[in-house]
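User: structure tokens for this one?
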Amino acid sequence: MAESMSEQILAIACALSKADESEKSMLQMICTAQEESLVRALKEGVAKEDCESAFICAAAWLAAAAMESARAGGEEVSSLSAGDLTVTKRSSDEGSKRLKLLREQAWALMRPYTTDGGFCFRGVEA
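Assistant:
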């Protein structure tokens, strides 16, 4: 039996975010929310099945980025030392750039299928 789009989105997001078993239910909710958000952004007359591959990738990338943002909690340890043990995490600037690029790539995939959400000014008859 073929996996549903939602199952594929979750599987990709799990792989990207390296979610463990304790995080999977939260990631599943994030995936559902991202999927719903993308559906609302689709152009009129476009169904998620019309752009299935792009939709799955974009939703998974957005969910993985959201999961990593949730994990970061806004602050990251840059260095911690205790005796001979040292723990260092990447700077939050590097992480922020990576997450921003992941989100940008997701929206770039969906650009042909979504409304831009921008302002449209039309002429008015006098």
